[in-house]
Specification:
Length: 117
């Protein structure tokens, strides 16, 4: 599985951004997908996750502000993250993740989100 993320950028506090991630390759093997983020000097953390049957989990820090969604097309799976009411503490590199059968993880290249105060 290969993942290509896009959509990061610079936004003022209170603004919105939408991240997208396109999965290709052996997409039939994908179970769960997720967005993670890593801020400078911090460990990578889970932001939101969605299972193959649509169950969703959010980190408490983004509940009510972020929305994860997943669209299965013929040869591609699209993972989105709609981010509203952004805060400076949301500044990080965001990574999309796909977990396939056998707990095999694939990662996107990361996209930078910067929220100015």
């Amino acid at each position: 599985v290969q993942l290509q993320a896009s959509g990061g950028g610079l936004v003022q506090a209170g603004g919105s951004l939408r991240l997208s991630c396109a999965a290709s390759g052996n997409i039939d093997s994908i179970n769960d997908m997720a967005w993670y983020r890593q801020a400078p000097g911090k460990q990578r953390e889970l932001v939101a996750a969605i299972t193959s049957d649509g169950r969703i989990n959010y980190d408490d820090s983004v509940k009510g502000r972020f929305t994860i969604s997943r669209d299965n097309a013929k040869n591609t799976v699209y993972l989105q993250l709609q981010m509203n009411s952004l805060k400076p503490e949301d500044t990080a590199i965001y990574y999309c993740n796909a977990r396939s059968v056998g707990f095999v993880d694939a990662w996107g290249q990361g996209t930078l989100v910067t929220v100015s105060s």
